[in-house]
Structures are given as structure tokens and as C-alpha cells.
Amino acid sequence: MTKEKKALIKIILTALFAALCFIGVLIRIPLPTGAFVHLGNMICILAALLLGGIYGGVAGSLGMGLFDLTHGYLGAGLLRTFILKFLMGLVAGLVFKLILKKKLNVKKLTIIFVILLGLAFIASVTLSVISYNNGFVITYTKNGEEVTKTVIIKWIIPLFIGVMFTLGLIDLFLEKKLGKVAGAALIAATCRVVLNTLGEVYLKALLYYWINTSYASFNDAYLYAVAELPATIITSVLTVSIIGFIYWPIHKATKDFNPIDYASQFLDEEKDEETIDDEETTIDNEKDAEI
Predict the structure, then answer these.
(1) Among 27, 54, 89, 166, which is least packed by CB within 10 angstroms?
(2) Residues 149, 68: contact at Cβ < 8 Å?
(3) Phi-psi sector, 52: left (phi>0), alpha (psi -120 to 50), beta
(4) What are the pLDDT digits (tens) for 143-174?
């Protein structure tokens, strides 16, 4: 395949995934906090795993950014989407490539990840149990009117860590059933979940405070961002869970025309090594037979 043809295919696939990201955000479930759960993040991560971090990040940034642009989410919200979704795809793609290229032990990485999350879950539950200040009040301006919202956050952090711990166990299960590549995809998707959660809190708070005049202080903007964490958690669970089941079938269906296919390169290298090992074993057996 020529360089020009590869470049054209990359552009076409990136545009296709950008359109799918747009449609994925349209498939959404609203929550009482005003936020909503959607499938756009899942498609962005899938694009990063299939096309690479840069192309997946561009697809997510353009697709979900276009949704914000056409649905009135301008200013800080639009800028946050462009930045965060690009970084989300970039990190997932780079982690996936690193694991496959360096041939890291996926099972050991996942076990370490699960142990750390288990300890963090125990610590967060303990702190939540002994904490008495478990809620806060946010006051901000919306459509020219002052809005007051009371948010209970006592169990948000333990819930998030607990969900991540459960996803880590799913990673271990699927790594055994589907192989190293599926496990690597799940680890990459999980890294994206961590980045997206941090971005949805800290990046959102910074941009909303700097650009959006509705918040009188950074603390108000930060608390508003924290109040929308439940939607982020639910979306993260959907993203990692769906990736675990659909990545491998989609990879096999698209590998013949995908110019960036790290998984196939990794599998081909493994097959070559296995062939060499088999040939060396056969030679050693023949020498033993001659002796």
C-alpha cells in the first residue's frame, strides 16, 4: 500500500469515527444533576485503539466538539471538550501501543493495578465513614437567574474507586479469556478513564472559572464540576465494559484495511517468535535422536 493511499484511508477512518462520536453523544441518558451519560467517549477510545492515539484523539475532539458547537455548549464547555477528548484518545492510544511494543506483562500490570485500587477503596470508605461533612451547596448563575444546588459527595469517591476496582477484575478475567491484546486494550481504556475523570473535575473547574462568569470563585466552579462526577463515573463504566467486549471483534473485522494496526503487528511478532522456537525445538530433538 502506497503512502498516499495510507494517508487517505487514515483521513477517511478519522472522519468516520468523528461522525460516530457525534452520533454517540446523541445517544444519551440525562441525569438529575443536569449532566448526561453517552457513548461518545467509548467510540473515541475505540478509534484510538484501532487508528492510534493522534487519530483517535482528533476524531473524539472533532466529533464531540461539533456536538457541543451545534447544541449551544460554547465557551468553556466547548474548549474543554476539544482539549480533553483529544488528550483522552491520545493517552489511550499511546498506552496501548507502549504495552504491545514493549511486550509488557499485561496480567502483572493488571494485578498491581487491582491491588492499588483495593487499598485505595478501603482507605476512601474508611474516610467516608468517619467524615461528617458530606455535602455542600453550590450557587451559580444560569440564564440570568441564581441557582442553588445541594450536592451530597460523601460516597462519590469510594464509588468511583470501587467501580475501577471491579473493572480491574474484569480486565483480569478478559485477559485470560481473550488474550493479551484485549487485556492491553482494557488497560488503555482504564487509563483514559482516570484522565477523563481528572479532566472533568480540574480542567472543567479551571476553564469554567476563567471563561464562564457565572462562578464568583474557583471553589464554586470546582464544586460544580465535582457535582457532575456521577455522570462521569457511569460513562466510564460503560466505556470500559463495552470496549472489553467489542474491541477484539471490530479489530478482526477491520485489520485488512486498517493502515495502523498495532495489534496485528504484535500478534505477527509473537507468531514469528513461536515459529522460531518450534524450529529450534525440532532441531534440538533431531540432534538428540541422532545421538
Answers:
(1) 27
(2) no
(3) left
(4) 667 777 666 556 667 777 787 787 777 777 76
Phi and psi based region of residue 157 (left: phi greater than 0; alpha: psi -120 to 50; beta: remaining): alpha
Torsional class of 77: left (φ above 0), alpha (ψ -120 to 50), beta (otherwise) = alpha
Domains of the chain: 3-283 (1.10.1760.20)
Catalogue the E-assigned strands of 116-259. Answer: 135-142, 145-152
- Residues facing 140 on adjacent strands: 147
CA distance 96 to 54: 12
Average pLDDT of every residue of the chain: 78
Which carries the bigger pLDDT value, residue 174 or residue 8?
8
Residues 124, 131 contacting (CB under 8 angstroms) = no
Distance CA 122, CA 22 (A): 38
